[in-house]
């Protein structure tokens, strides 16, 4: 089984220049850098291609500040889905766009990205299928099990890719960073939980290092058929890709199962680096794939609700409200006691709000207490004020950019095509 690639990125790709998504005239295009030395440590993508990143240099006061962003894009949890992935842009840099548009938190324009525009900004391409946390040794073991011709091309050493990219960036200035922020969305947002403290360990001791997860707070919940399908999925992923050894040792030695420590709700309290959790309380990806996956709704009773919250029945709305309550419940301790943490949990039907300009920082972008996401994250990073915002429940927020519902037909069509 393959959890579908993030719909948002695909949607943005499809709709980059419709009237609904403002299309900037001066798009910043940043070329890909292959990590040639990765072969020295066997840090290959699923298909054996070299891993890659895109770097746009900082300038002025930001020259010694670094923002690293993990690309997202689902996961693969069995041989078949990983093999399929290896033949696509999700598992091979050969099939990826060689130039990326840097917008939102990656923009270099002060009026579009007020706090990070002049930093060194890096997008880490995702080609391993396990949130940069697997190790190939385990995949080799699978060869025997599956009785499959298992070549180097289906290894999944995400953790090695992470390290290879860091080692490549250190001499380029990351090793002398004064400020740093590790971010990412979706599977990349999950990767920030998994790698946050490891990131800190590579940077100078006196550097100001923090981490931000966008739409990576995947909940350990039962789906509507009471199946713990996401936990089963992660269990398979962890054993296939050899993730266990790379999970937080303090978490796994505290009586949690490895698959639990893959969930941010258990891992978060062991992370020592200051952390910001940005998430929608009705995250569309989690709604469609974790709360109501197709296996839990074989007759498609939820189809209308999945396309438009206004079409949901009262029972369906109750279930969605329950999902929000579950998310807030597991964040409560962090909300109340974390002195260094930040939160922005808005009540939108969204997924990934830091990478696109219209949700990160724009005249009509989502707000809480009149603050945009860019302002909330900046306030937290620079310690300007406590930045912990929790929205009131749906449908109270009128600033949302929902991916379903009021979205024009072409977006709804794109969602249907993707699922
Ligand atoms: C490449 O990797 C090898 C082995 O880890 C190391 O000795 C060498 O310094 C690296 N070269 C560069 C340019 O990073
Ligand atoms: C920065 O963005 C603003 C607002 O979109 C735009 O007016 C301006 O031309 C941009 N500046 C540069 C240098 O691209
Ligand atoms: C498993 O692999 C062995 C050795 O390559 C082969 O003889 C056997 O037919 C395979 N079994 C299946 C079920 O593919
Ligand atoms: C960080 O991760 C890399 C790659 O797995 C590992 O080699 C290194 O020891 C880790 N550093 C710390 C401090 O855990
Ligand atoms: C439960 O979830 C797993 C993992 O997604 C799936 O393979 C299985 O078919 C589901 N079982 C039922 C009864 O829906
Ligand atoms: C575990 O916790 C101890 C004490 O808080 C800390 O010193 C250590 O770095 C942590 N180890 C990991 C792997 O996070
Ligand atoms: C909200 O913020 C905008 C600028 O971001 C400002 O112009 C406006 O006055 C603020 N509104 C309120 C009610 O504070």
Automatic annotation (TrEMBL):
The protein's enzyme class: hydrolase
Pfam families membership: PAE
Record InterPro entries: PAE/NOTUM
Location relative to the cell: Secreted, Cell wall
Chief place of localization: secreted
Source species, domain of life: Eukaryota
GO BP terms: cell wall organization
Keywords, in A-Z order: Cell wall, Cell wall biogenesis/degradation, Hydrolase, Secreted, Signal
Coiled-coil segments: none
Record-stated family: Belongs to the pectinacetylesterase family.
Function (record text): Hydrolyzes acetyl esters in homogalacturonan regions of pectin. In type I primary cell wall, galacturonic acid residues of pectin can be acetylated at the O-2 and O-3 positions. Decreasing the degree of acetylation of pectin gels in vitro alters their physical properties.
Official protein name in the record: Pectin acetylesterase
